[in-house]
Amino acid sequence: MAEAFIVDAVRTPVGRRGGGLAGAHPADLGAHVISALVSRTGVDAEAVDDVIFGCVDTIGPQAGDIARTAWLAAGLPEAVPGVTVDRQCGSSQQAVHFAAQAVLSGTADLVVAGGVQNMSQIPIAAAMAAGQAFGHDNPFGGSDGWLARYGDQEISQFRSADMIAAKWGIGRAEMERFALASHQRAVAAVDAGHFAAEIEPYQGVAVDECPRRDTSLERMAGLAALRPDGVTTAALSSQIADAAAAMLIASDVAVREHSLTPRARIRHVSARGDDPVMMLTAPIAATEHALRRAGVTLGDIDLIEINEAFASVVLAWQRETGADLSRVNVSGGAIALGHPLGATGARLLTTLLYGLERTGGRLGLQTMCEGGGQANVTIIERL
Predict the structure, then answer these.
(1) How far apart are CA 119 and CA 191, in angstroms?
(2) Last residue of a domain, which of 226, 257, 288?
(3) Is residue 162 one of the residues assigned to a domain?
(4) DSSP state of 44
(5) Within a domain: residue 193?
(6) Among 105, 169, 297, 367, whose CB has the most other CB atoms within 10 angstroms?
(7) H helices then E strands: how many in the chain?
(8) CATH number for the domain including 297?
(9) Domain containing residue 286
(10) How far apart are CA 48 and CA 77, in angstroms?
(11) Which of 135, 115, 13, 33 is nearest to 74 (CA)?
């Protein structure tokens, strides 16, 4: 039976908006982690079958198939192609899924998968806003089928976060305690050096810039909500950030032929959909689906990484799944570490891999909510 392995994984630090990575061309950020991956693994770059990168808002420096551009910017062989994936926030997790599926199908043996995003240069939803110059206010308004099914109601992640909080009865104080814990865990992980091995410093930036050491429940309580009559604040939301991450996915044949040492086996990949208006709830159904298909229970999972798009997203997921939060985002999540859209999926999986190795855990699960009401789930097994 064919298998797909993670040989290695590497990421840049996550830079805060306007921070140390803000001036970096996205292709150079991508090239940086690709070069580091090739160097760390010693793989023959000519043997790579494809480069699959996630990226959202692919305009300006992120346009033109940045997977291909990043590979070429790294000075690597022109014979190797690249393709860019957009499954919104889950783009680089989906890139890993496509890489694993190619390997499992036997159509590829070595694939570089990852993602990149510079949100300081290209703001969130810039691609959606770009349509306004051509008479399209948003991606949905001109569709008869969409309007017939969902009407012209607001489609917004901020509205969705508030809707989730209301549906699951999650109060602001509970969310603020969760957000504070995310920062505390992230700061502790930085101070303990837990991220050092997974990070390839970029132009003098060597540590994640987003965790806030001085935040407090009192400071969070003083922030205004993002929407009138809402409960979600900036403190309860993932941070705008810049980063890149990449990993090498290999078949068992490639492992033998190239004398590679795999670090984890990819046990399961899947994606599910849910209400696109509520938008951010799909990890609930996707987690149940993945566990059933993989033949494991949540109790079998040693570590979990779920993207902290908003505090309400994770807390609603926890209410439904019964997950033990002591095993979830143990080194902090996107509220503290940032959410560089197209890079986050691969960043989470990288942190999950290193976390399993550090703690001696065997199974790890990653999931994240995505625009359109979708979610990916990846289950890996440390070797």
Answers:
(1) 26
(2) 257
(3) no
(4) -
(5) no
(6) 367
(7) 13, 10
(8) 3.40.47.10
(9) 267-382
(10) 9
(11) 33
Verify that 38 and 119 share a domain, yes or no: yes
**112 and 19 housed in the same domain:** yes
- 310/315 Cα distance (integer angstroms): 9
Specify the amino acid at residue 311.
A
Give a yes or no: residue 341 inside a domain: yes
Structural domain count, the chain:
2
Closest by CA position to 116, among listed 50, 34, 204, 211: 34
Listed in sequence order, the residues at least 6 apart from 270 whose beta carbon sits closer than 8 Å to its beta carbon are: 97, 286, 289, 290, 293, 376, 377
Flag whether 198 is in a domain: no
Cα dihedral 168→154→87→183 (10° resolution) = -50
Encode pLDDT of 194-232 as tens digits.
Answer: 999 999 999 999 999 999 999 999 999 999 999 999 999
Whether residue 250 sits in one domain with residue 305: no
Task: Write the pLDDT tens digit of every residue in 127-185.
Answer: 999 999 999 989 998 899 999 999 999 999 999 999 999 999 999 999 999 999 999 99
Task: Name the percent of the chain lying above pLDDT 90.
Answer: 97
Taking alpha carbons only, the member of 182, 195, 129 closest to residue 308 is 182
Could you give the percent of the chain with pLDDT greater than 70? 100
Please indicate, yes or no, whether residues 39 and 77 belong to a single structural domain of this protein.
yes
CA–CA dist 339, 322 (Å, integer): 25
Choose the final residue of a domain: 230, 257, 284. Answer: 257
Whether 246 and 289 map to the same domain: the answer is no
Whether residue 120 is found in the same domain as residue 247: yes
What are the strands, taking DSSP E only, across the chain?
Answer: 4-11, 15-16, 50-54, 82-85, 110-118, 241-251, 264-273, 303-306, 363-370, 374-382
The DSSP symbol for 237 reads: B
Q: How far from 296 is each of 230, 300, 302, 365, CA to CA, in Å?
A: 38, 6, 12, 11
- Mean pLDDT estimate for the chain: 97
**Within this chain, do residues 274 and 249 fall inside the same structural domain, yes or no?**
no
Cβ atoms of 118 and 16 closer than 8 Å: no
Mean pLDDT of all residues in 59-84 = 98
**Dihedral sign for Cα atoms in the order 112, 114, 118, 123:** positive
- 325 and 352 both lie in a single domain: yes
Whole-number Cα distances in Å, 39 to 21, 34, 333, 350, 351? 22, 9, 28, 17, 19
Residues identified as active-site:
89, 339, 369
Please say if the pLDDT value at position 1 is more than 90.
no
